[in-house]
Amino acid sequence: MEKPDQLRELFRMQHALNQRIGVNTDQMTEEEKTKWVLNYCRAMSQEMAELTDSVPWKWWAKYQKFDEQNARVEVVDLFHFLISLAQVLGMSADDVFNAYVKKNEVNFKRQDSGYTEKDHGDSKHI
């Protein structure tokens, strides 16, 4: 049996969850998109804080332990919101993959050139 396209499956699953929650990312107005981009950015910021709290970042506190299992859960939570954000912006799994490939090429070119100055136009084609 052939393995399903995992990224497309994540997008399908997130779309179904968003529909169940009552968030229809398919036909949003600009005002709704603005609201949900902000909502998902705030949610991801909170998940990043929770991920940060999974590692002993308080150098002055001796009680902290690295909670790798919780860190993994927080990474998955980030994917939920990141996929939702992509969907609000009208991006499919294929769109994300193609943009990632192009941006990865830009990042490699930046490293090859020493990345000594910012080129504001090097990502505009993505």
The gist of it:
The chain has helices spanning 6-21, 30-52, 68-88, 93-112.
What would your notes on this structure say?
The chain has 126 residues and is mainly α. The protein has a domain of 86 residues: Helix Hairpins (Orthogonal Bundle), CATH 1.10.287. The protein has four helices and no strands. Helix 1 packs across helix 3 and helix 2 packs antiparallel against helix 3. The protein is globular and about 50 Å long.
User: Helix and strand string, N-terminal first?
Assistant: HHHH
CATH architecture of the domain at 6-91: Orthogonal Bundle
Radius of gyration: 18 Å
Question: Major β-sheet, in short?
Answer: none
Strand content: under 5%
CATH topology assignment of the domain at 6-91: Helix Hairpins
Structural class: mainly alpha
Can you identify the CATH class of the domain at 6-91? Mainly Alpha
Calculate the mean pLDDT score and round it: 95
List how many beta strands DSSP finds.
0
Portion of residues within helices? 55-70%
Oligomer: single chain
Shape descriptor: globular
